[in-house]
Amino acid sequence: MVDAVVLAGAANAKRLRAVSREPYEALIPVADRRMVDFVVAALEESPSVTRAAVVGPVPQLKYLEQGKVKAVLPCAGSVMDNLRQGLEWLQPQGYVLVATSDIPLLTAAAVEDFLKRAQETQADFYYSIVEKGVGEARYPGVKRTYVRLKDGTFTGGNLFLFHPRIVDRVWRLAEEMVRLRKQPLKMCSLLGWGQVLRLVLGQLTIAAVEQRFAEIAGAVGKAVISPYPEVGIDVDKPSDYELVQRFMGWGGKTWSGGAGLNG
Predict the structure, then answer these.
(1) 209 in a domain, yes or no?
(2) How far is CA 154 from CA 130, 134, 229, 262, in A?
(3) Number of domains into which the chain is organized
(4) Residue 19 included in any domain
(5) 212: containing domain
(6) Is residue 51 part of a domain?
(7) Rounded to the nearest 5°, which phi and psi values hold at 256?
């Protein structure tokens, strides 16, 4: 059983301004609800999730404070600042699941599968990844940032699991990884230029990344290969938005407001 933090504090100040003028990405309408509503619904339906905190614009998201969502907390700044905000409120005793609010295709089955696979190994930190072929087979036309490893070609997911005991040890490294998350080569450089060369040559393995992460961070990290591409389809540009709308059967229609879940 785990607690969860939903990160819903990203300002809508970049490419998604073309599809919505909402001030926060979490508030952007997808099908008949706000984007964050789908993520919260997946956590609500996941038996392994006991409590959740949502960090985002409180006035607009207060309606989410029901069921497993015990608190909607104000944004504290950066992604990592918002995560710390959630952790300080939850005061978790065990592992914490982190989900971003921009993965509206997420399902409870995907959450449960990720948590189950994580339980199969011993680690401090788990990071979801999705194989390119899996995503493209389920969602033709999907555009992601991929990394070619010796094990296969993958995109990063938006579900993370970690134990709070590692927070102080890995915080600075985690901040850099978040900052470079859309730039695979630069992110890999955090592990050393030898790893970058292996990546360029297609010789870098998941196991090598995990080993190097452990050496640098002083914590054990494991990649979890998810068969659910939904964990890796984050909406951060108009083409993502259009794809999600299409697969939800909403076509080109948009939703003009309302409170969302039970609102």
Answers:
(1) yes
(2) 5, 9, 11, 36
(3) 1
(4) yes
(5) 2-247
(6) yes
(7) -95, 0
Q: Are 81 and 175 in contact (CB under 8 A)?
A: no
- Looking at residue 115, which CATH number applies to its domain? 3.90.550.10
At residue 49, the pLDDT reads 99
Cα 63 to Cα 178: distance, rounded to the nearest angstrom: 29
Helix (H, G, I), strand (E, B) or coil at 29: strand
Residue 102 to residue 6: CA distance in whole angstroms = 10
In tens, the pLDDT along 130-162 reads 999 999 999 998 999 999 999 999 999 999 999
- Look at residues 43, 171, 33 and name the one whose alpha carbon lies nearest to residue 100: 43
Rg over alpha carbons for the chain, rounded to the nearest Å, is 18
pTM for the full predicted model? 0.91
Alpha helices in 100-252 (DSSP H): 108-118, 132-138, 167-179, 184-189, 193-200, 206-217, 238-247
Taking alpha carbons only, the member of 11, 27, 23, 17 closest to residue 256 is 27
Nearest to 19 by CA among 242, 251, 249: 242
